[in-house]
Design goal:
Layout (H helix, E strand, L loop, with lengths): L8 H10 L4 H19 L2 E4 L1 H16 L11 E5 L26 H8 L3 E6 L33 H8 L5 E6 L5 H7 L2 E4 L19 E6 L2 H11 L17 H8 L8 E5 L9 H16 L3 E5 L7 H16 L20 H12 L2 H14 L5 H24 L2 E5 L15 H5 L6 H6 L3 E9 L2 E8 L5 H14 L13
Parallel strand pairs: 2-3, 2-4, 7-8, 7-9
Antiparallel strand pairs: 1-3, 4-6, 5-6, 5-10, 9-11, 10-11
Bound molecules: glutamine.
Glutamine (GLN) binds next to loops.
Length: 495
C-alpha cells in the first residue's frame, strides 16, 4: 500500500500545496488501493477513475500557475450514492434508480468540486438510506475492514468502509437517524452530523426531509472539520438551509487538539446506556468519560427523560416522510420501468415498477408511513410522534442549561456479523438508540473513536446545542489527542 493512502487529508493538502507530491500521484495511489482491496470491502458502487485523474490534473495545473489552493485541494473523497453527481450513476442503493445519471450536481457535490477535492466515486449504502448495515443495498453489502465478515454500519456504510480501509481519506455520508455516526463508530473513524440546516439538502435524494442532513467522515477530527467547512453554508436552493455564518469547526478542532477542557461542562446522559448495551461498549464509554475528566472537564450526570421514546417517534416520522418522498419514483420520471408492454395500464406500470424496483425494507417503511398518515390514524401516530419530538427537543434545551455538551456511546453495539440482524427489523432499529435524539431535535453530534471492545471499534458521541457544532469538534479533538489512535490497530486487509 502506498504511504500516500495513510496520510490525513490535512497532510495530503499540505504536501500538494507545497509541491512535495502531485494531486495526480495522490489520486492514482487511492485508485490503486481501491483496485487492490475493494473486491473485498465493496465500499464503492461506482469508481470514476477518469474523472478523478482529470480533477487531480486540474489541481496540479492550478498550482503550477501559482494560484493559492483551497484548504483541501487535491484530497480524494468518496461520495455516498444518495448525493447526486452530474453525469455519474446515482442509485441511492436502489434498483429503481439503476442506470440513472443525474443532469445536475447537488450543492455539496458542487462545493466539493469547487474546493479542488477529487471525487473518486460513489459509495454503497442501504437502499434510500434506510438501515444500519448496508445489507439493504440492492447491490450487496459492504464489509467492515476490521473484520470482513461484519457490517461497516449504515446507511452510509460504503463511505465509512472506504475511509477505514484507506481507500479515501474523506467521505460524505448522510445522517437521518444516525447514518453518519453509527458507521463511523463501528469502523473506528470520525463522523459528524451537522445542525439540521447547516448543510444544503439540494440534490440529496430525500428520505425523511425534516431529518436528513449530510455530514463529513475522516480519520481525524481535523479532517472532518475541514470537510465540514467546505460543505456547510447557506444555500437559497434549500428552503431549510440556515442563513448565517458557518460554525468555526476547524478552529475548534485545532483548539481542542491542545488537550485542555478545563471549564467545559460535560453531561453524561443517564438514559443512553445500561440495559441492552454491550458491556464492552459501556466499559469503553466509561473509560472515555474518565479521560475527559482527566482533561479538566467537569462531568455531570444528566437525565433526558423522553429520550426513551425517540425510537418509537422516529420510526413513525421517518417512514411517514419517506412514503411521501418516494412517491416520485413512478416509472415515468427516473430509472426503472417495468411491465411497459403497451397493454398494461399506466397504474399497472407504476405498481409493477415499484414492486420490482423497491426492496423489502423500503416497502415496509412506505406501508408503515402510509398507514401512519392515513385519515383517522394521523393524530394517533404521526401527530403523537411529532409531540414526542418536541419533548425530546425540550429535554436537550433543559440539559444545555446545565452543561455545554452531552456524551453517550454512539451505538449500543460494536459491528455485528453480516446476516445476524437482517431478518428482524427491531434488532436492526435498536442500533439507532443513541443517535436518534439529536436527529429528532436537529442538534449536532459527532462520533469519535474511543477504543476497542473484543478487537472492534467503539464510538464516543458528543452532542451540542443547535448551531454549536464547534463544541462537538473541540471536545472530540481534545479526546482524540488524549488517546491512542484506534485505527492504528486495524489489521491489514488480506489480499
Ligand atoms: N438506521 C436508521 C434508519 O434505518 C437511520 C438511517 C439514516 O440515518 N439514514 O432509518
Amino acid at each position: 500500500m502506498s504511504e500516500l493512502t495513510r496520510l490525513s487529508a490535512a497532510d495530503i493538502a499540505a504536501k500538494v500545496a507545497a509541491g512535495e507530491v502531485s494531486a495526480l500521484e495522490v489520486a492514482q495511489a487511492h485508485l490503486d488501493r481501491i483496485a487492490a482491496v475493494d473486491g473485498q470491502v465493496h465500499a464503492f458502487l461506482h469508481v470514476d477513475a477518469d474523472g478523478a485523474l482529470a480533477a487531480a490534473r486540474a489541481v496540479d495545473e492550478r498550482r503550477a500557475t501559482g494560484a493559492v489552493l483551497s484548504p483541501l485541494a487535491g484530497v480524494p473523497l468518496a461520495m455516498k450514492d444518495v448525493v447526486v453527481t452530474q453525469g455519474l450513476p446515482t442509485t441511492a442503493g436502489s434498483k429503481i434508480l439503476e442506470g440513472w445519471r443525474p443532469p445536475y450536481d447537488a450543492t455539496i457535490t458542487r462545493r466539493v468540486k469547487d474546493a479542488g477535492i477529487v471525487l473518486l466515486g460513489k459509495t454503497n449504502m442501504d437502499e434510500f438510506a434506510m438501515g444500519s448495515s448496508t445489507e439493504n443495498s440492492a447491490y450487496g453489502p459492504s464489509h467492515n475492514p476490521w473484520d470482513l465478515s461484519r457490517i461497516p454500519g449504515g446507511s452510509s456504510g460504503g463511505s465509512s468502509a472506504a475511509v477505514a480501509a484507506f481507500e479515501a481519506p474523506l467521505a460524505i455520508g448522510t445522517d437521518t437517524g444516525g447514518s453518519v455516526r453509527q458507521p463511523a463508530a463501528v469502523t473506528g473513524i470520525v463522523g459528524h452530523k451537522p445542525t439540521y440546516g447547516a448543510v444544503s439538502r439540494y440534490g440529496l435524494i430525500a428520505f425523511s426531509s425534516s431529518l436528513d442532513q449530510a455530514g463529513p467522515f475522516g480519520r481525524t477530527v481535523l479532517d472532518a472539520a475541514l470537510l465540514h467547512e467546505v460543505i456547510a453554508g447557506h444555500d437559497p436552493a434549500d428552503s431549510t438551509s440556515i442563513a448565517g455564518p458557518v460554525a468555526p469547526v476547524v478552529a475548534a478542532a485545532r483548539d481542542g487538539a491542545c488537550g485542555d477542557l478545563s471549564g467545559v461542562r460535560i453531561g453524561v446522559v443517564r438514559e443512553l446506556g445500561g440495559e441492552g448495551y454491550q458491556p464492552g461498549v459501556l466499559a469503553s464509554f466509561e473509560a472515555a468519560v474518565e479521560t475527559l475528566r482527566g482533561l479538566g472537564a467537569e462531568i455531570r450526570e444528566v437525565s433526558c427523560p423522553h429520550f426513551g421514546y425517540a425510537l418509537a417517534a422516529y420510526y413513525l416520522i421517518a417512514p411517514s416522510e419517506c412514503s411521501s418522498n418516494l412517491a416520485r419514483f413512478d416509472a415515468v420520471r427516473y430509472g426503472l420501468r417495468a411491465g411497459d408492454d403497451g397493454v398494461n395500464s399506466l397504474e399497472d406500470v407504476m405498481s409493477l415498477t415499484r414492486q420490482a424496483g423497491f426492496g423489502p425494507e423500503v416497502k415496509r417503511r412506505i406501508i408503515i408511513g402510509t398507514y401512519a398518515l392515513s385519515s383517522g390514524y394521523y393524530e394517533a401516530y404521526y401527530g403523537q410522534a411529532q409531540k414526542v419530538r418536541t419533548l425530546i427537543a425540550r429535554d436537550f434545551a433543559a440539559a444545555f442549561e446545565r452543561v455545554d455538551v452531552l456524551v453517550s456511546p454512539s451505538s449500543p453495539f460494536v459491528a455485528f456479523g453480516i446476516g445476524e440482524r437482517i431478518a428482524d427489523p427491531m434488532a436492526m432499529y435498536v442500533n439507532d438508540l443513541c443517535t436518534l435524539p439529536a436527529s429528532l431535535a436537529g442538534t449536532p453530534a459527532i462520533s469519535v473513536p474511543c477504543g476497542l471492545s473484543e478487537g472492534l471499534p467503539v464510538g464516543l458521541q458528543v452532542m451540542a446545542p443547535a448551531l454549536r457544532d464547534e463544541r462537538c469538534y473541540r471536545v472530540g479533538a481534545a479526546f482524540e489527542a488524549a488517546v491512542e489512535p484506534t485505527l492504528a490497530s486495524i489489521p491489514e486487509l488480506v489480499r
